[in-house]
Amino acid sequence: MIFSILLAVLVFSLLVVSHEFGHFLLAKKNGIGVIEFSVGMGPRILSGVRGGTRYSLKAVPFGGSCQMVGEDDDDDSEISFNSKSPFARFAVVVGGPLFNFLLAFILSVVVLSLAGVNEPRVYYVSEGYGAEKAGLEEGDLIRSIDGHKMTLGRDIELYFLSHPMDGSPITIEYERDGELRETVLDPSYEAYLTGFSYYASEDEAAITALTEGLAMAEAGAKVGDVIVSIDGTPIASGLEVQSYFEEHPLRGDTSVKFVLERSGKTLELSVTPTYYQASTLGMEAVAYRNKEAGALSVLRNGFSEVRYWMSYTLTSLKMLVTGRVGVENLSGPVGIVNMVGEVVEQSRSDGALYVFLNLLNFSILLSVNLGVLNLLPLPALDGGRLVFILIELVRGKPVSREKEGMVHTIGLLLLMALMVFVMFNDVLKIFR
Fold first, then answer.
1. Which of 50, 137, 150, 331 has the fewest CB atoms lying closer than 10 Å?
2. How many C-beta neighbours within 10 Å does residue 178 have?
3. CA-to-CA distance for 341 and 318, rounded, in angstroms?
4. Parent domain of 226
């Protein structure tokens, strides 16, 4: 847990310092005085002044800050934030989120250089499903879906997150052997299911999972039961289960008789398959199976990664606003610590390189999230400040500082209330 906390602090501090460094560089570029640029919070442990700016390393290694002249007071000197043109102030405010996107791009290039690019190439087609009927094959490169360009394998997943399948035909443009082709895929899928999983191997046909509410679970089967026979046909392996159902497709008007072995005893179950209807592509192209690529491809895909996570963040916000996901799904610092711990734990068995790569991927997501969220036109955020600057450009004069300050103060209080709720919810998740 302590290790996860340290890693989370390191990741979060990198993102915040990058954000504040963007404000700092644009402030200096536009002649705005910076009182202090600090890494960390709390009392100073190292500090020095250069060029009129105090640079500090503080005791609590969490976050950082960039304090500019006149940012939160009525200082009207020529080096104050408020004395500069709206365009200069706009550049300074947008500099923070911009540097979050820049950091995400740099981290993406590192990940892609080590792990390769994630292209939308089909690597598995399920027999009998829409993809096979539409003529798609393993190795096909998906170029677009319903006119929406696919650059990364994960773009397919993201597209259907924001455009849920409803059974309507899907137009897919793909490339095969250098030739661009187009097909129409019917995602509708109907079947009868018994609701159990097993390994199609030469080992004994043990049930590895059961779907609650479906026929096999309702009949009394349990995970670990070994299938001995089906409708009187002896079964010695998972491969034989697979072969049996290939030759005897399930029907809704005919029950299937299973003989199972459990703890040395046998039991018979009569199972009537459950009708199942869904929409699915019937193929896999979203996998995180990466392809080695040259320097130009890595750089190009670095931009695609940042664009993907920006789209992912905006899609998630849209789902939050429309009620498709609830506020209980939001996470704050406590949740981030927990997620960092999960990332490390899930990657540890694969080796240090995978832990490193997954942490970088998580950092890319958080960095883009921080950049996008700060650009939202909400009080107390960078986006809220940009709104007031845009109003000033339209009106030809600024909104009074008192009124703007009041709006930001109210927004800050609401933001803090949301943070308290999110933190409380994060703590509850740990104990569930």
1. 50
2. 6
3. 28
4. 191-277
In the β-sheet with 265-271, what is the strand arrangement from edge to edge? 233-234, 226-230, 256-262, 265-271
User: To which H or E segment does residue 287 belong?
Assistant: none
Residues 179 and 285 in one domain: yes
Report if residue 332 sits inside a domain.
no
Greatest alpha-carbon pair distance for the chain in Å reads: 92
Do both 178 and 285 map to the same domain?
A: yes
Under the banding of pLDDT at 50, 70 and 90, the label for residue 159 is very high
- 3-state secondary structure string, 314-337? HHHHHHHHCCCCCHHHCCCHHHHH
For residue 73, tell me if it sits in a domain.
yes
CATH of the domain at 248: 2.30.42.10
Tell me what the mean pLDDT of segment 225-238 comes to. Answer: 94
Could you give the CA distance from residue 408 to residue 387 in angstroms, rounded to a whole number? 11
Q: Give yes or no: residues 250 and 369 share one domain.
A: no
Cα–Cα–Cα angle for 102, 19, 84, nearest 5°? 105
DSSP string, 161-176: HHS---S--EEEEEEE
d(CA 427, CA 343): 18
Do residues 105 and 10 both lie within one domain? yes
Q: What is the pTM of this model?
A: 0.79
Q: Tell me if 136 is assigned to some domain.
A: yes
Could you tell me which residues come within 8 angstroms of residue 6 by beta carbon, excluding any fewer than 6 positions away?
none
Radius of gyration for the chain, computed over Cα atoms and rounded to the nearest angstrom: 28
Taking a C-beta distance cutoff of 8 angstroms, is the pair 383, 411 a contact?
A: no
Same domain, 68 and 126: no
pLDDT at 119 over 60: yes
Q: Which residue type, as a one-letter code, is found at position 320? A: L
Measuring CA to CA, how many Å separate 285 from each of 121, 180, 204? 5, 17, 31
Close Cβ partners of 10 (under 8 Å, ≥ 6 residues apart): 61
Q: What is the count of structural domains for the chain?
A: 3
